[in-house]
Amino acid sequence: MNANDTVSDRFELARGELTMAQIAAGLAFGAAIVFALLFLQEPLAHDATHSFRHAAGVVCH
Length: 61
Known about the structure:
single chain, 3 helices, CbtB-domain containing protein, transmembrane, transmembrane helix, CbtB_put
């Protein structure tokens, strides 16, 4: 990778180096994070995932 790589270049690089299982695992992990951040907003779930959100770099307050 060089400094002039675009997002499209990075997708092409990933497409050539990643297996379908790795892509599926990454998408599943992303879906789990989205689910946790968007749908688990009950107070107990919010407290349980509070530290996780900060560790992931998401500002929640």
